[in-house]
């Protein structure tokens, strides 16, 4: 596997890991399950694509097709993470609240219908713009560090 893929995967893993202490700072509750969930601060989508784009820019240069492809696809991923996926998450919040609303409407009626409670839909799908920005900044940092570390290894091997 090439070094750019390693840098991006490390960046994604780091973003997922950082969600746990950041969530703790906000809520005073540890939730290790956040490591395997989407959404939250920082965005691992943004971290992954921005670290790869940064790595490519430093390794191959900005005038290359590699950089152009990585940048454009990265921007699409980040836009999607905070746009469409965020809207889906907000819609899911509304759908999850519908059951409570129906219960309130039907409190006066005596209905013999027994319905199974469906599982709540996952509400944390997309990202707030600051979560996308946080992931992008983390990714740029990790892409830069990845480039520096692989550059040092390369120059060491040529001695």
From TrEMBL:
Q: Where are the transmembrane segments?
A: 6-25, 132-150
Q: Which keywords does the record carry?
A: Membrane, Transmembrane, Transmembrane helix
| Coiled-coil region list | none
UniProt-listed InterPro entries: DUF212
Which PANTHER family does the entry link to? Answer: ACID PHOSPHATASE/VANADIUM-DEPENDENT HALOPEROXIDASE-RELATED PROTEIN, ACID PHOSPHATASE_VANADIUM-DEPENDENT HALOPEROXIDASE-RELATED PROTEIN
Which named protein is this? Divergent PAP2 family protein
Give the species this sequence originates from: Niallia alba
The beginning of the lineage is:
Bacteria, Bacillati, Bacillota, Bacilli, Bacillales
């Amino acid at each position: 596997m090439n070094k750019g893929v390693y840098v991006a995967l490390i960046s994604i893993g780091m973003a997922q890991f950082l969600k746990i202490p950041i969530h703790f700072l906000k809520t005073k509750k540890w939730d290790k399950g956040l490591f395997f969930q989407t959404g939250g601060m920082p965005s691992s989508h943004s971290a992954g694509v921005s670290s790869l784009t940064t790595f490519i820019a430093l390794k191959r240069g900005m005038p290359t097709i590699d950089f152009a492809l990585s940048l454009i696809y990265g921007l699409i991923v980040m836009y999607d993470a905070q746009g469409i996926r965020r809207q889906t998450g907000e819609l899911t919040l509304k759908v999850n609240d519908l059951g409570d609303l129906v219960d309130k409407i039907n409190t006066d009626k005596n209905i013999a219908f027994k319905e199974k409670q469906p599982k709540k839909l996952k509400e944390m799908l997309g990202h707030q713009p600051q979560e996308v920005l946080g992931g992008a900044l983390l990714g740029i940092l990790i892409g830069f560090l990845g480039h520096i570390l692989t550059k040092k290894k390369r120059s060491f091997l040529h001695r």
